[in-house]
Amino acid sequence: MTETESIAYDVVVIGGGPVGENVADRTRAAGLTTALVESELLGGECSYWACMPSKALLRPVIAQADARRLPGLAQAVQGPLDAPAVLARRNYFAADWKDDGQARWLEGTGAVLYRGQGRLAGPRTVTVTGPDGTVTTLTARHAVAVSTGTRAQLPDLPGLAEVKPWTSREATSAQAVPGRLIVVGGGVVATEMATAWQALGSRVTMLVRGKGLLNRMEPFAGELVAEALTEAGVDVRTGTSVESVGRENGTVVAVTSAGDRIEGDEILFATGRVPHTDDIGLETVGLEPGSWLDVDDSLRVTGTDWLYGVGDVNRRALLTHQGKYQARVAGAAIAARATGGTVAEEPWGAHAATADHHAVPQVVFTDPEAAAVGLSLAEAEQAGHRVRAVDVEFSSVAGAGLYGDGYKGRARMVVDLEDEILRGVTFVGPGVGELIHSATVAVAGHVPLSRLWHVVPSYPTLSEVWLRLLEAYRDN
């Protein structure tokens, strides 16, 4: 192991996914010298094993499902998907798991890339162990930002090691369609991957420990998605936990709590995420290795004036778009503090990630799509708000019928009865992912219902569901 001299920067970022890249971009734009450290591919989980490859797998599935709802087009798309072509397109969107383009982009920002394992080595100090074993020490004049994200959590089950289970990484990067796939879990990764691989030709069985799917959304979201998955051929088993797994003559066997033996060619565990902070030297600055980072609204780690935890590592919202939002806030806060400027930490200020508390949007790219922002009805009530849920079926919206025959979906807005603003909105139905930004604006902006009456939806589009929701609130 060879050590080099220490190199000083204004800011050092550990983790080069989209969050770390955005922190580096914002601090560089503010004129601060910035180093970014990445141990794998620059661009991180989202670019190669999550958002981009998963949506590339799902887009042909959803497009085919939409086409099959349209007489005159349905007859032309009755055959199976061309799985090799879908996988090849997915490979393209994952840049064939090469990060040359990302590296060129980062170079254009003026940030300096260090490839290797980054570890904290005391306050404002980071060591980077390169692929050849060379250790470089980086010191930060102003801030170190940890943006190392999360990794899949695997349960402690008998036989798991010999099975070599899929996690989200293998599920989004597999180069062949398994004949039979067991999916353990009922959240976003589980439902999206069940949707994709079933459509590509796999026989999918879902084993869900809870009562239903997508349990962090309104109950009807999981119900509608489960119904559609079942109609598509997925065997959805709720209230079912896995007791043990193993391989018998190459076949995966999962034994359930009911004593059933489920066989498959591969098994995907989509059972949660843990912070990727166990090997980054947190103990050298008095923090617990492997822990989530507790941060304030400017993303600064509690008890420090130089360490920031940005993105999934702080557990505020495990979503790429929310992490990038945090990165913009953190970058601006770091720059303001470094230059002696004013730090606006009040709610909705330039240096406060207030949306993390009030207006986090998410889209689940199943068929039907499920999209939500803000609080569910149960969450709003638990938070002490006096609220009312208003539901409408998309069958009342002309644009839904035009979108496709037999369109099935539902919308809900959660109205704060004290202020007559929206605390949350949920849409379920084909194509509703494109509606959620309007709901995010309404929730984040605390737009009063009296003003929403004057936001006229174009006819005939899915957006007319807003008018139906407002009418239902007024008339009931």
UniProtKB/TrEMBL annotation:
InterPro entries: Class-I_Pyr_Nuc-Dis_Oxidored (IPR050151), FAD/NAD-bd_sf (IPR036188), FAD/NAD-binding_dom (IPR023753), FAD/NAD-linked_Rdtase_dimer_sf (IPR016156), Pyr_nuc-diS_OxRdtase (IPR001100), Pyr_nucl-diS_OxRdtase_dimer (IPR004099). One of its GO terms (biological process) is 2-oxoglutarate metabolic process. Pfam families: Pyr_redox_2, Pyr_redox_dim. FAD binds at K55, G118, D312. SUPFAM superfamilies: FAD/NAD(P)-binding domain, FAD/NAD-linked reductases, dimerisation (C-terminal) domain. Its cofactor is FAD. Residues 360-466 form the Pyridine nucleotide-disulphide oxidoreductase dimerisation domain. It comes from the Bacteria. Keywords: FAD, Flavoprotein, NAD, Nucleotide-binding. One of its GO terms (molecular function) is flavin adenine dinucleotide binding. Disulfide bonds join C46-C51. NAD(+) binds at G185, G186, G187, V188, V189, A190, T191, E192, G272. Binds 1 FAD per subunit. Residues 9-322 form the FAD/NAD(P)-binding domain. Belongs to the class-I pyridine nucleotide-disulfide oxidoreductase family. This is NAD(P)/FAD-dependent oxidoreductase. It comes from Streptomyces argyrophylli. The lineage of its organism: Bacteria, Bacillati, Actinomycetota, Actinomycetes, Kitasatosporales.
